Amino acid sequence: MCRIVAKKELAPTVKSLTIDAPLIAKKARPGQFIIIRIDEKGERIPLTIADLDVLQGTITTIFLEVGKTTKHLGSLNDGDVLADLAGPLGKPTEIKKYGKVICVGGGVGVAPLYLEAKALKDAGNKVISIIGARTKELLILEKEMRRISDELYITTDDGSRGHHGFVTDVLQGLITKQKIDMVLAIGPTVMMKAVAKMTKNYNIKTIVSLNPIMVDGTGMCGTCRVTVGGETKFTCVDGPEFDAHLVDFEELMNRQRTYLEEEKVALERWERCHH
Amino acid sequence: MGKVSSLKKQPMPEQEPEKRIRNFDEVALGYGAGQVVSEAKRCLQCAKPGCVQGCPVGIDIPAFVKCIAEENFDGAIEVIKKKNNLPAICGRVCPYEDQCEKFCVLGKKGEPVGIGRLERFVADDERKKGMRVPEKANASSKKVAIVGSGPAGLTVAADLAKLGHDVIIYEALHKPGGVLVYGIPEFRLPKEIVGAEIEYVKQLGVVIQTDVVIGKTITIDELRGEFDAIFIGTGAGLPHFMNIPGENLCGIYSSNEFLIRTNLMRAYKFPEYDTPIKVGKKVAVVGAGNVAMDSARVALRLGAKDVFIVYRRSEKEMPARAEEIAHAKEEGIMFKVLTNPIRMVGDENGWVKKLECVRMKLGESDKTGRRRPIPIKGSKFALDADTVVVAIGQKPNPLIAKTTKGLRITEQGTIWADKNGKTSMEGIFAGGDITTGTATVIEAMGAGKRAAMAIHEYISQ
Ligand SMILES: Cc1cc2nc3c(=O)[nH]c(=O)nc-3n(C[C@H](O)[C@H](O)[C@H](O)COP(=O)(O)OP(=O)(O)OC[C@H]3O[C@@H](n4cnc5c(N)ncnc54)[C@H](O)[C@@H]3O)c2cc1C
Ligand code: FES
């Protein structure tokens, strides 16, 4: 059982929960994730780690309310407990000095990106960040990202803040102007796919953090399998980060749609009971 | 004594196939009190009983069967529990036909004594009355960490706790029990029974910490600093895939995913439980072991119309227990033998719709003594299937091997250990599927018992 010690609403549908998890806080490295289960009847879902505090023994996760489980999670408050929390899972990001890196974050993907960008900065890289969202309310961690980035660009799909358009528009401009040593992109799969396609033309090493459906998160079920460089990999143990130019994004997006109908049923049922 | 034993076992009462394929309730219903005594009376009480030698944990079988014949059920369970901490589980899932019952003299002319069924009866009888916790040795002040809460880990833990040691089990999943909770379906092994037997292990003083992934949350090296000894019983939980084109289409599951969703996550109760599972009308299960039979029977209960087993050898080579194959057939599972899938074909939405297969014939025997399947040229054909479960085996979980320097790992990926469970590292023991590859519940328990003795000796030095 894990207690929620703080809850913040970053946007009407974006919540941040800080959870008591001393063992995980001590071990977690940027790029890793956790699996939570809310209660006895709950499903296991992966969440990224947005921040950690070793002294307090807490970790923070930021999520977008999309389906039943994330809405339910968003309805919890400080003092509530989660039935289960396991982690840190997956491999940490390879942090080293690349030179000049661009960190691209879309939506709540900015949350895990923040820890990784910070580590890259600490490792001596020049960090240029691009963060985007559908609209300005959904833009998160702008202040934090600004603090650790040498340059920060903002985009919104509706133009309510920053560049009117996609993160890739800004990325295109940046990579044509200068030599970039590495691009790290975390966000919706379509965004990562678009980034990968663009950087491939310029031959820039690109890393993405994949978010397939998972169950156990420890390598036992194969739900999270993806094709990388023609080989099947388990995202939860071999990833979640992979070389973007080798990932079969079409297959990933297809597999992410497996339970769309069931997700709708679960959400409607939950909303009927809670509103 | 001039006693004449009947040639046949008392029949096991079962749910009718037409009824049971619509529910997840237990198929075998268990003997009644009259039946169990009649069955026990068939035992000849041999002077040199072969059955005991066939039991990996060495239960004094004639003694407990005698108690039952005398209607002393409490006495019977007491005899069993001296050696076996999980009798209601073993009484349901042990392959008796290859173990105790294989050596029963009655089996020469007719059917052996139904030892497994007798064990099940007295274990259930005790559970209904309330389990008694045995006396423990005085506290030893020694601490042992157990990794994994499957039958191997639970056995080591219970035995060491009885000897007075402090035992903590670390389990990666949210529920203890290993394959007993995530793999074997409810209709063969009700989870309530697994829960009760685990509760018994806890009452012996064993602490179980779930959601701790050793190698990630805590490493083996860190455990070494805190404990006097460590036992690794992490099982063989890594699913094999066929590595054929199209295997990552939607609608294709590993047997582990299929069974974890159903058993551990209770997807058959979706949407009451959150985890979904999708089963179409035509389900193909690739493989013919116990795991394949379980997957096929689960698919049927989840509403599939046609379920078939696709197996590349013939029925004779099927690794599943005869009883499981018979149950599957009774339920209407179809068998497509000498058939090997080579490609999975999807529809325009990326869902599987066909299995492209070739027909096989049997050639020479291979290392395992089974005849090797050889593809027949030009025999390609397609099987319609909108759900596929790949049940062709599991490998040992590599997480600890990868994160523990100095631990000797075999070519098969298992952790190397001697027959008492000693690994290449001082103070670290291992047993169960992680050292043998996929085997059986009782063998994992046998390994656990031997390791518990070795650990006891090691920490008592
Ligand atoms: C579907 C299915 C049906 C079966 N049917 C039968 C049957 O009818 N009869 C029979 O005798 N046998 C059967 N078997 C085989 C039997 O279940 C296994 O041989 C037995 O469970 C092995 O026990 P174990 O303790 O070694 O491992 P497991 O039962 O696999 O338990 C290992 C445990 O360790 C945990 N773990 C793994 N890695 C870590 C880690 N890093 N940190 C913490 N915990 C970890 C796992 O989550 C798991 O709970 C079946 C197997 C399957 C899959
Ligand atoms: S989530 Fe089960 S193997 Fe990755």
Secondary structure elements and their pairing?
The complex is a heterodimer of chains A (275) and B (461).
Chain A: E1 2-11, E2 14-20, H1 22-27, E3 33-37, E4 45-48, E5 51-53, E6 58-64, H2 68-74, E7 81-82, E8 84-89, E9 100-106, H3 110-122, E10 126-133, H4 142-148, E11 151-156, E12 163-164, H5 167-177, E13 182-186, H6 189-201, E14 206-209, E15 225-228, E16 231-234, H7 235-238, E17 241-243, H8 249-256, H9 260-274
Parallel strand pairs in A: 9-10, 9-13, 10-11, 11-12, 13-14
Antiparallel strand pairs in A: 1-2, 1-7, 2-6, 3-4, 3-8, 5-6, 14-17, 15-16
Chain B: H1 17-20, H2 33-41, H3 50-53, H4 61-69, H5 73-81, H6 87-93, H7 106-109, H8 115-129, E1 143-147, H9 151-162, E2 166-170, H10 179-182, H11 191-203, E3 207-209, H12 220-226, E4 229-232, E5 238-239, E6 252-254, H13 255-264, E7 282-286, H14 290-301, E8 306-310, H15 322-330, E9 334-336, E10 339-346, E11 352-365, E12 371-375, E13 381-384, E14 387-390, E15 394-395, H16 399-403, E16 428-430, H17 433-436, H18 441-460
Parallel strand pairs in B: 1-2, 1-4, 2-3, 4-16, 6-14, 7-8, 7-14, 8-9
Antiparallel strand pairs in B: 5-15, 10-11, 11-12, 11-13
Helix pairs in contact in B: 2-4, 2-8, 4-5, 4-8, 5-8, 6-8, 9-18, 13-14
The structure holds flavin-adenine dinucleotide and FE2/S2 (inorganic) cluster.
- Report how far apart the termini of chain B are: 50 Å
Number of strands of chain B: 16
Indicate the mean pLDDT of chain B.
94
CATH class identity of the largest domain in chain A? Alpha Beta
Which ligands are bound?
A: flavin-adenine dinucleotide, FE2/S2 (inorganic) cluster
Helix fraction bin of chain A:
25-40%
- Largest interface: pair, residues per side: A-B, 41 and 42 residues
Strand line-up in the sheet with most strands of chain A: 12-11-10-9-13-14-17
- Category from helices, strands and their pairing of chain B: alpha/beta
Beta content of chain B comes to: 15-25%
Global outline of chain A: globular
User: What kind of sheet is the major sheet of chain A?
Assistant: 7 strands, mixed
